[in-house]
Request: fold
Amino acid sequence: MMSGSFASGSSDLTKELTCAPGPIEQVRAYIHDALVVGEMEIRKLRHDPTELLTRAVQPALWLLVFGQAFSRIRAIPTGGVNYLTFMTPGILAQSVMFIAIFYGLNIIWDRDAGILQKFLVLPVPRAAFVTGKGLGAGVRALSQAAVVLLLALALGVHLHWSVTSVLGSLATVILGAALFATLSMLIAIAVKTRERFMGMGQVMTMPLFFASNAIYPIQIMPDWLRWVARFNPLSYMVSLLRGYLVTGRAPGEWSDWLILLAAVVVAQIAAGKTYHRVMI
Amino acid sequence: MDGIDFDVQEGEVFGLLGPNGAGKTTTIRLLTTLIPPTSGEARIAGLDVRRDGAQIRRLLGYAPQTLSADGTLTGYENLLITAKLLGLPKVESQRRIARILSLLRLEEAAGQLVREYSGGMVRRLEVGQAILHQPRLLILDEPTVGLDPTARHAIWGMLAELRLETGLTILITTHYMEEAEAYCDRVAIMNHGRIGAIGTLAQLRHRVGREDASLEDVFTAVTGDTLESGGDFHDVRQLRKRLQRFD
Reply:
């Protein structure tokens, strides 16, 4: 039990403080603060861009080694598209997911370093931190998209290079990264320690990747795996990217967008509501 | 924590003392709305920490125990991001940042990454972040732990200057008895989640019945001078981790 007080002696101050902002002001503050958190993430990246280079290695290996080798086998039905072309959007989605899924580690690190405590004590809506971190993950993922697309260009992969395709792909990358980063934050909030989080991250990445349409079509999967793939957000991200980059337009574009958006909104609300629990 | 009851008056420097694991940091976390109290109540300027967290956070400045400035940003950027999150207008935030950098004597290092700062510079920067919005109450959790005597002296000098200039109320935790004795108006000595003694140095001396007693003597009398004190394994490990960050 505890009881204590800090006497201010100023009734005006208390009146001013207890005057809560209106709903429009709250929304404006939320958007502003989320953008500031996003800006902070970009500034960090600008000071130390080495992680962008190191993280480009894995997708490069998938395209250069796995992609080149499997292109010769021709064992996977790709709907008449060269296998390297088929898998490039999948590798892009996978590399974005791999970066974003470990993003939650940042909030555990920030908590251990005291950075999170300091921010949680600022008069900022806590959901704005979650959205800002999601935005930051999206911006980081754009660099990954640039690397994969440039590599595809260098390898002579036949992609659809229209303005709509590129913009649609980049928007998909930002949304997908925000989704996986938010899911990652939810895991961090639940497990609370770096060691447990790393274990969870390792456990999640491979199943998400292999139970998706990233490197083979859903049609060749056994029934049970198709069901899993349908609940896997990575599948929707790959569908959109494959649509934009291979044919120029995704067949189920709007439904894929809606599903991804809905997943982001639900995950953001859940993470915003529970963000402070990482402290307990 | 068990049955803690204390008031901090406006404009005073109030020290919360106690061995590791006494409950100081938990008290601070409750007052800063980082964790909710399971029972009892705490008020800041008449606002309830359980109910009015958002409003309370508008009048608080807080620097946690760990080195909390972001090492991957420059000193200026740390202040700028905090100012933006506080919603300060651009011109006003530039004015305050310039003023604070001058007060903290960090102007020359403002463009440097914080991971290249000394421990004392980081601590000064953190106090700067905590006072950007001109809070009514500044809460500092062991702001001088791990610093050498010169850096500790500089931190206290800066706090004294700040207090003189703004009339700020300061709630502070520290392990250093000589600092609490020199700079705090009143202290509370916590032990095993309770307040063992509270008051000015004169009142505490009177309590132990020795008019020449130092605060350290009072502390020992209240907490007991046993080998078992000093916190559990977790407390000691956390303290060592924190100190390693100063190396």
Remarks:
- The beta strands of chain A are 2-6.
